[in-house]
């Protein structure tokens, strides 16, 4: 019997619930509230859901349990048709984390990592509401978001889609975001359950992780979402301790339903189903986006008695229970609101402005005022092409997007001089026809549907050089031209899903063609070049271009000239991440480090604005005046960046992940078993030392620590008082704005280890935080409640939380490495 089996393994692998320490205090994980959040009664005999199931044929029940093709959709990710005869409407399921992903325009919000940087649960609620309303307005019923997998490796391709490396911060934010989404009547899906912390081999990798690490680090975000009432959970692609997450009884039944009381439904990630009876028995309810295992195969399994129909009823009942809770069974879906693009844009601007993190600011480089605001060189490709979002399923079609250059010009005003130099040509330059024999135009060739075009000739290069070949092409990745240089394919098919997911701006030309790049060391002389292109369904358009050392040097020289001629420089650096692909280095891609070093050398009043997915190394840091981390800032990114640069807004964002100095100095460095995994296994041997916990334990200095972020004003902390509240505690202190500008401070409370727990504990862990706005000179008494849970550890022997009693150190400060106040308190079990 699968149920009994799963429960047994739940206890041994993950642990059941033992209320050793009660959850309380700041509510981590937070309790349910809000209209969509009620965890309604499970269907029982006589309930509406039960009576519907009693009237459904097996085909009708199965139609609720797997995806199908939508006859009328907006290109959203998933669809189930419903049962019209019984008044059960279809469900439309759309991504995702930074806005509603359909073929129509929607508000492209800043990436979740930027939202998280604001350390503001209220803003997470507003962010959720914006997506919730838009999703309903755009005909959707279910949102495939939020993503709460922790940032564990700096290389993971989806780090921008999630919140950060700390479970408490993630939990507090995701709870509010789920409430916001569901306040508007859209069903939230927390994903990817669980341990989907990298893209490399994501569909097969087996994550080997111990119970405590899972419970203390990765799972709290999911738990908080479930307790906030999330209607659905999406299982992850990867395996966890030997079983695919989507057929893991310990996870789907043990943790989710038995421990946390989840009464919604679990769907697979896309094309992540692997079995019928095993998956259903383990607790999976819905296969997406089609019905390979939960369609005809399940019908057959029920018919031949392999799967009891009661298991189908149970899964259908879970889907219907959530639909009922959201009023979808009341005779047609509740009325849909209209879109409000203006309100969406306001939220997008607010979040991007609140989340921007000022990493460095020397010699008063920022804000740009006086002469610094009147003579500016804007440099970098993302200075003139808006970098709205990352690639993959979190990509949204934005309502609009201005470039930073336009926004800076407008803000600087008439009397100012704002020049632009691209610094790097991301789309390449024409290959001169004369370098090709026979001469051929490789610039914007159109090959009609059903036709072919081939070139077989010689490319002559005067001297040895590194060329970056850039291919622009229309249509799907499989339709792109084949390019062979000296018999080697220049753009081979990428293994895994990396081929299908393209990144944000540098992966598409302004005229909408997809882009691939390959750097090649060319020897002087003749090289055989072959190009074979076939016009697919709608024909094929392509260009083959390149950059050379000379073109790159000319771009850098132009940037340096612009930097010298201007009083101040704003240089935009980028990293174009996407789902489906991890990056291979924490360095900025391409030749950007050399560009930044040259520009900052030419003008030390250089501010580097980073549009990156996650942390980056910065070998040029000491030469720059300032660094502003904006991640993927959404459709209002230009306005937000400009407001922060000119001081119209004061930066108040904080890092939600540690930035390493280099590829050799972070928790994954030097151990391929940790990352990217060896022989299909990935060991979480760092245990509970994720992120800043690892830097602290190993005594490694990060480039910038978790919680770091500067302001244009200064804050002073005073008067820490600690008192017990139940089994938790309360930290009371005063924060004063001691500078001349209004601004927001994020006061962070960290706790030290418990002397009574014989476990490897973090030197400090975030236990609470508060974002406070203060006018110049204003002081505020701040109370941060620390839940008992934030003082507890997971006991793998007893499979439960255990309170870390005894004398604990409490630090209050401005980052994980900037404590301003310190105190001690005796933690005890309280009532
Ligand atoms: C992603 C999910 C996403 C789904 C539907 C998958 O590739 O991992 O996060 O929701 O596609 O687009």
TrEMBL record:
Superkingdom, taxonomy of origin: Bacteria
Keywords: Glycosidase, Hydrolase, Signal
Gene3D superfamilies: 2.60.120.380, Glycoside hydrolase family 3 C-terminal domain, Glycoside hydrolase, family 3, N-terminal domain, Immunoglobulins
Low complexity compositional bias, start-end: 28-47
InterPro entries from the UniProt entry: Cellulose_deg_GH3, Fn3-like, GH, Glyco_hydro_3_C, Glyco_hydro_3_C_sf, Glyco_hydro_3_N, Glyco_hydro_3_N_sf, Ig-like_fold
Region feature (Disordered): 27-47, 658-682, 811-831
Ranges for domain Fibronectin type III-like: 745-816
Membrane spanning residue stretches: none
SMART domains given in the database record: Fn3_like (SM01217)
Ranges annotated as biased composition (Basic and acidic residues): 662-682, 817-831
Signal sequence interval, chain numbering: 1-21
Record SUPFAM superfamilies: (Trans)glycosidases (SSF51445), Beta-D-glucan exohydrolase, C-terminal domain (SSF52279)
EC number: 3.2.1.21
Pfam short name (any one): Fn3-like
GO molecular function list: beta-glucosidase activity
Family according to the record: Belongs to the glycosyl hydrolase 3 family.
Protein name, as recorded: Beta-glucosidase
